[in-house]
Amino acid sequence: MTKMTNDTYDALQKVIRLVIPLVTFLTAIGEIWGLSWMSLVTATISAFGIFLGSVLDASSKNYKKEKELKEKAEVPIDEE
Which of 17, 19, 27, 48 is the most exposed place for a label (fewest CB within 10 A)? Predict the structure, then answer.
């Protein structure tokens, strides 16, 4: 699996933080203006946001696991 850079992770996090308010806004506008097709748009955006969230969660868990393993490897073993 290809490692995600910090910049990519940060950018995707910003996108996800934008998705939730955007979906709420679009849902409200769709209801106000009677745009029945807007529910299809908001469902699609929500699904995309959930997918990105899952990718970031997996990436974060892998990063923490690798960091933990690296720290354990660097701990000196006492020789007697």
Answer: 17
